[in-house]
Every structure is written in structure tokens, then in C-alpha cells.
Amino acid sequence: MSPAIFLDRDGTVIEHVHHLIDPSLVKLIDGAAEAIKVFQRAGYACVIVTNQSVIGRGLLTLEGLDRIHEEMNRQLAEHGVTIDGIYFSPHAPKCDDMETIDHPDRKPGPGMLLRAADELNLDVSRSWMIGDSLSDVLAGRNAGCRGTMLVRTGCGAKVDADHPAIDEVVNDLGAAPERILNHQTQR
Q1: Distances (CA, A) of 31 to 12, 22, 93, 108, 111
Q2: 3-class DSSP state of 185
Q3: Which residues is 7 bridged to in the sheet?
Q4: pTM over 0.90
Q5: Angle at the Cα of 42 (from 36 to 48), degrees rounded to 5?
Q6: Minimal CA–CA distance to 165: which of 185, 144, 183, 186?
Q7: What is the rounded distance in angstroms from the CA atom of residue 187 to the CA atom of residue 177?
Q8: Which is it for the CA torsion 6, 11, 14, 19, positive or negative?
Q9: Is 22 annotated as catalytic?
Q10: What is the mean pLDDT of residues 152-163?
Q11: What mean pLDDT is predicted for residues 2-6?
């Protein structure tokens, strides 16, 4: 079983666009592709886990989501990067509390991470969850990840970094490999 880096999509890998429905608005965050490449070279699978309430709200179809992911993957491929898996939750939130699990697949629920671990033969206990929101890091904590990391891109600048579910804080995904690989060598 391989360790994984579970990655939120919006605000972590690509720029945050509220209710992203237009593939032409997809733009990689600087340093994201290189960070993914470093993680994969170090033996981590890199898996996107993303809440996509735009589907549950009726703003985007599954085909539209596929087009957005195709554009993200095209941009990553320009940097020689291929994501190991993409998992999404189409469910709209039932409340505004980022700490409440209102569906097991919707972050902060662990469902997407656990399904990816099962389907891709990943060891969650050796894995990290990286995202720009409290619900992202809580999904990692709820899944039993070894560590969680908040990035200050996207919505991350507004998150209280003192929350006990957050193990590490970095400015952006580009700064994550050094921090995580340093943890790996300390074990």
C-alpha cells in the first residue's frame, strides 16, 4: 500500500472560483504542478478530493464537471503531471458549519478519502490531506490521515490556523513537499 497526498481542488491546486462552472476559468496555482511532481517522485499517490455542490445545486452537470477536470488535467500535463485519481462529492451542504458532517462523502466527512484508499490501495495512516479550508483538514483527520496541512491560498487565509485538526500551515502547495518530506524522514 502506498501513502497518498489527498488534495483539495479549488484554492489548493487551482485558483478558487466561487461555484466554478466554466472550464475557461481553470488556472493552476503557481507551484502546484511542481509540488505534485515532487510528491509523486517521493512515492506518494496524488489524489484530488473535492466537494462539488454546484452539481447538487443544479448549476453544473457531470459532463460539465468532466470538462473542468479535463482542463485542469491538460494544464497539469503541460508540466508533466498526471493526477492518480479524482474523487468528488456532488452533494450540496445542509448547513454552513464547516465542522459538521452532513454527508459521509462531503468534506469534512472522510468518504472520498476512504473510497480512494480502498480503490487505489492507499495507506491512509501514512497519508496527508492538504486543503484551504477547515472542512478539508477535518476530512483528513476524520479519515485517519497521518497529517493535515492548511494552505493559505484560496480561502485558507481566513482560516484560524490554531484549530487542533491542522498539523501544518504553509503559504501554498509549492511549500508543502519540503514540510511533508521532512516529516517522513523524522519517522
Answers
A1: 10, 22, 30, 26, 28
A2: helix
A3: 48, 130
A4: yes
A5: 35
A6: 144
A7: 16
A8: positive
A9: no
A10: 92
A11: 97
pLDDT of residue 184: 63
Cα dihedral 149, 57, 17, 41 sign: positive
Candidates 8, 105, 132, 172; catalytic one? 8
Determine the residue type at 165.
A
Contact predicate 82/41, CB 8 Å: no
Exposure string (b/e) for 40-49, b if CB count within 10 Å is 16 or more?
beeebbbbbb
Whether residue 97 lies in the annotated active site: no
Q: 95 pLDDT exceeds 90? A: no
> What percent of the chain shows pLDDT beyond 90?
91
The residue type at 98:
M
Give the model's pLDDT for residue 98. 85
Q: Active site residue: 10, 105, 132, 136, which one?
A: 10
Q: Which residues pair with 148 in a beta bridge?
A: 129
108: which DSSP letter? T
Q: Phi first, then psi: what are they for 17, rounded to 5°?
A: -125, 120
Residues 6+ apart with CB under 8 A from 34: 79, 174
Cell of 3: 501513502
pLDDT tens digits along 23-56: 999 999 999 999 999 999 999 999 999 999 999 9
**Res. 186: pLDDT tops 80:** no
The one-character DSSP state at 96 is S
Query: Is 96 a residue whose pLDDT tops 60?
Result: yes
